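Q: What would this complex look like in 3D?
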Amino acid sequence: MTDDPLEVTRRGLLSGGAVAASAATMMQAVPAEAQADAAAQDRPQLQDITLEVNGEQRRLAVDTRTSLADLLRDRLGMRGTKVGCDMGQCGACTVHVDGTRKLSCLLPAVSVAGHRVTTIEGLAGADGLHPMQQAFIDNDAFQCGYCTPGQIMSAVACVAEGHARDDGEIREYMSGNLCRCAAYPNIVAAINQARRRMEKA
Amino acid sequence: MRPYDYTRATDPRAAVQAARVPASAHVTAPVQYLGGGTNLIDLMKLDVMRPTAVVDIKGVGGEAYRQVRQTPDGLRIGAMVTMAELADHPLIRRDYPVLSDGLWMAASGQLRNMARLGGNVLQRTRCPYFRDVTYAQCNKREPGSGCAAQDGHNRIHAVLGGSKQCIATYAGDWGHTLVALDATVEVLGSSGPRSLRFADLHRLPGDTPHIETTLAPGELITGFLVPGGPWPRSRYVKVRDRESYAFANASAAVAIRMRGDVAEDIRIALGGMTTKPWRATRAEALLRGRPITEAALRAAADTEFADARSYEYNAFKVPLGKATLVRGVLETMAMKG
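A: Here is my prediction, written as C-alpha cells for the whole assembly.
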C-alpha cells in the first residue's frame, strides 16, 4: 500500500495540525531535483522509502532526519512505541528490526528501508496476547506503563537470544530498559514465566 | 538536527570516494559513515557532530566485513561485525574471553545489536562539556576555546594521558582489549588499503584534542587482526557506579601466559580513566618473566600510575585504578589456560 505522507490522523487533528501543515509546506518547497544540494542550503532532505511494519508494506516519503520511532508514532499513528530520552539511553523505543531488538530513536527511518519492523502493536497473534504480554499482566510488571512496550519488545528478543536463562542474566541483558517506577523484580518474574511458555511453544 | 544527505554504499571503494572530502580531522569531516549510528545520531541530535552527508555502510564490503575467522596471521574480525555477534561468538568466548568481556560488559543489548566494531573503537568521549554545545569551552569541539572540565565537574575524567587542553576519558571498553592483545587495524583509504597498530589509532590529546585518531578524513576501518592467540587466560574487569549498562570508572584488560608461577607473557591495558586505549607498559615490564605476587602487582601499579594527575572530583580514580589493575591480574591468573 501507499501511505499518504500528509494523512492526518484524528489525534493529529487534535494535537498536531499545525505541525502537519508546516510539514506539507516544506515538502512542497523541495522538489526532488533540488535535493542534491539541499543539505548545503540547510533544507530538509526527503526520500521515498518502503519498509515492512507488522507484516504490512508501508511506502512514504520521509525526511532523512526522521527517526524510526518518530515515523512509527507520527507518520503511521502507531503510538505503542514510546520515546523516553530520544538519545538511545532508556530503551522505551525498543522495536525489532529483522527480528533483532534495536533502539528506534537512534535509527534514521531511511536506514530501515527494505527491512522488517515489528512493534508492540504487531506482537499479539490471532489467538490472543503474546506470552510475554500476558506474563507482564500476570506479574504486575509495570506501574505507570510508559516503559512497558519497550520492556516487552526487549524481553521477547532477550529470550530469543538465549540470554534469559536465570535472574542474573535477565538483569544483565535487560539493563538497557530503564523503569522509572522500578518494577524490576516483577519484570524479571514476568520474563521467567514467559520464557518457560515460549520454550514449550 | 541539521539536514543531511543519506546514501547507502555496498562497494567500499565507492564509500571511500564519497567520504573523501577535505577536513581537519576524521571525526569532524562533513561526510560521515553510518554503521550502527549509536554514537553518531545522538551526537547529531546534540549538534556536536554536523555532517552534511551520511554514507550508510552497514551493507558494505560483503562477507569479509562481517566474518570472524582464524587466519595464518591471527584472528581476523570484520569491521561490520556487531558487538553482540562477537561477544556471543563461541570461538571468542573460548579462546579470547577478554574480547567477549569487553563487549558484553559495555552498552546494552539493543545497542550491542546495532553498533559495529569498526565504529565501536571510534566512539567519542562522554565528557559532558563536549556533549553539551551550550558550554563555550571545549578544545575537542571548538579548538582553542579552553577546557571547562579542568575546573569543572571532572569526576568521570582521565588521570592518565591528559593534557592542559583536554582530560576527556576514552569511553570505550573493547579498544582496551585490542590494545592489550597487540591488534592491528585494517583501513581502506582513497589510495588503497593499509594497516596500522591499534595502539597507533588513537592519539593522546596533547595540544590537538580535536584530532582524535590517526585516520585521514574518509578512511574506512575494514577489520581487525589479533596476532599470537589464543588467549584463553584473559579477562576484562570493569568497575562502575552501576553493575550493568554504565561506563567504567576504572577497568583492566588482562591476558597472561603462565609457566608455573611465572608470567611468561603478560598484557595489561587500562580504561575508564585514560584519554586513549592505554597499554600499561611500565607495569608489564616489571611483571613479565617474574613470579606474580600481590606485592609485585601493587608495586607495578604504583609505577604505572607514577605520572597520574587527578583533579578536584576524580582523585579516587588513582587508588581505584591501581586496585583494578591488581584485581584484574589476580582474577586472570585464577583462570585456566
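A: To summarize the key features: The longest helix of chain A spans residues 184-200. Chain A is about 35% helix and 15% strand.
Q: Very helpful, thank you.
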